Amino acid sequence: MEGALFEDKIFSIVPKTTHKERKEILSIIAGPLEHLLGLRQCTAIYEQVKSQCDSHLFMREVLRRLDVQPVVKTEDLENIPKKGPAVVIGNHPFGGIEGIILADTLRSCRPDVKIMANSLLNRIPQLRDLTIPVDPFSRSGSVRGNIGPMREALRWLKNGGMLLVFPAGEVSHLRLESLEVSDPVWSPTIGRIIRRARVPVLPVFFRGHNGPWFQAAGLIHPRLRTALLARQLIGMRGKAVSFDIGRLIPFRWLERYAGDAELMAYLRWRTYLLGHAARRKGRPIKAPIIAGFQKPQPLARAQDTALCRREIERLPVGQRLAQSGAQEVWQATAEQIPHVLLEIGRLREFSFRAASEGTGKSMDLDRFDAHYLHLFIWNAEAAEIVGAYRVGATDRILERHGRQGLYSSTLFDSRMELFRRLGPALELGRSFVRPEYQRSYSPLLLLWKGIGSFIARRPRYRTLFGPVSISRDYSDLSRHLIATTLLQHSQAKDLALMVKPRNPANLKPVRIRGCGHPPSQICFQDFKEVCSVIADVEFKHRDVPVLLRHYLNLGGQILAFNIDRNFGNAMDGLILVDLTQTDRKTLQRYLGAEGAAAFLSYHESESTNDSVGLIKAG
Question: Rounded distance, CA 498 to CA 191, Å?
Answer without folding.
Answer: 43
